[in-house]
Design a protein that fits this description.
The chain has 437 residues and is mostly beta strands. It has 1 helix and 37 strands. The strands form 11 sheets. An 8-stranded mixed β-sheet has the order 17-18-19-21-23-25-27-28, with no helix packed on it. Strands 30, 31, 32, 34, 35 and 37 form a 6-stranded mixed β-sheet that branches. A 5-stranded mixed β-sheet has the order 5-9-10-7-6, with no helix packed on it.
Amino acid sequence: MKKILLVLTATFAVCLAVFAGRNMCVKKQNGEILRINVDDVYEVYFEDIFNPDTSIITPPLIEPTVEDVSAYAPLRFEITSDSTVIPYPTDLDIVSVIIPSKVKIDGKVYNVTSSGIFSCDSLTYISIPESVTKIDSWAFYGCRSLTSINIPKSVTQIGVNAFANCLSLTTINIPQNVSIIGEYPFIGCCNLYSIDVDTDNPNYSSLDGILYNKEKTKIIAVPEGIKGTIVIPSSVKEIGEAAFSHCSRLTSVNIPESVTQIGEAAFSYCSSLTSIEIPESVTEIGSAAFNGCEDLDVVIDNSKENVKFYYWNAKDTITENIETFINVKSVTWLREPDPTVVDASVYAPLKFKITSDLTVELTNGDYNDLNSVNIPAKVKVDGKVYSVTSIEKMAFYDCYRLSEINIPQSITQISSSVFYGCNSLTSIEIPSSVTEI
């Protein structure tokens, strides 16, 4: 290195003698040109930039704007619009890279607005410019050597599986402008112990390294490196899809009474989890919620009839599913089914209308062929139990074959003309619960 500097210095000295009386021009990164009269130059030398805080010699941090993309070896760029491009690595063995904010292709300048996809096993460092607004789906999938990454505040979207299988990633910060985070963004990040969200972010929040929605009513992602016991806040209503998946060092979790839904694969492959108690408040549990928890004893403070098991199929509709507890050690239900509850969807031909959060009304229907009717005290509609408290006006109008009807103690109101024209009905017992006819 010293020899090279001596040669360069000697070369400059010769140039000064030859070009005396002329200007020496130096073009800067930003395009500015500095002109220096050669006659005023006494000595030309190179000076390292010294950082007194760390006592380390460091190069200046300059975000490159590529003049000639064909000569920019680390990356290639795909034009996505009249003004934007996406970067891709030219070599999957790349170790470090600085993504430019702008590139020039065939004389035209384009903005780099997406991260591109870097599935590079050897990548240890990447610099993302402020021009980027989207971290693409699968952007850093399988970047096993990446220990940290700085997401700029310009980013508004993080795609599906964006950081999946980044085995060396330990922490990650979500900036304030991120409004969309795709599914499974950190799946397979087995050493990730903290996900931190900027406090000014209006869409997401974090607590003890766990990713929530802003209101902390839903758990979105728990870092897989977390260990020990987790106490879920009482504000949480939903444990999201795959939220705790692959948290293999998690030994205990406390689910509060506020939780009503546990998502698909929510606790899958939590291999150190040996027991979990699901409160009575939970009425929906997704498919494979505890898959791979082979030593897990599940205790549910409810009856099987009061909990709906589901998975999201291709048509995006809830479908009954029996694989919720596949591979677990045991499942214990603490409550027996309520014999007074019937499923409204299969209790033909009676029809019910929801009138409040807790009640339904027996409504008009095609009851003309019925000889007898047994009105249930409670019905289940879409997995939720309601009390049958009223009978709609003219509900059994002109049901001339009806000779017997049983009205439960849950009924408080019988509307007008309910049994008008029921000529075969010779007697009826009105329960003491009825206050209005």
